[in-house]
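re the bet — no i am not wrong, look at it urself. input seq straight from the record:
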Amino acid sequence: MHQILKIFNLIKYTSEGESMEQQILLGLFIGILCLIFMIMKTKIHTFLALIIATILVGLIGGVEYSKIIESITKGFGGTLGSIGIIIGFGVMMGQLFEVSGAAKKMALTFLKKSVALKKISSGIRSSNLRLIRYIPAFA
């Protein structure tokens, strides 16, 4: 906790007395350190850690909130800007489904409910269900 207070005091002094370029560089340095920490120590998903670090760099650098979001969206590109973040969060949800076992449960449910599977004999059905664990649904 003491180290966090030192960092915020450093940010305070930088924003009062130093130039804007130095404040942005300080924000970039702290953002990179936080990004590395979030990925390596807290095991946060890399996409989410990158978004958080980007917002942190903007806030420490003295950029307005609306400009930070606009900059992130422009960084993803014109066409994929608005949908890229949604795709990133979708990938995270898919990974959560895989880790929690929900993906396997959903696949089993879909197979059990399908009409085609009901017509197959029980011996073939059980061997097909054993093969599900080898199908990478959310890789």
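see?? The mean pLDDT is 75. told u. also The longest helix spans residues 20-40. so pay up
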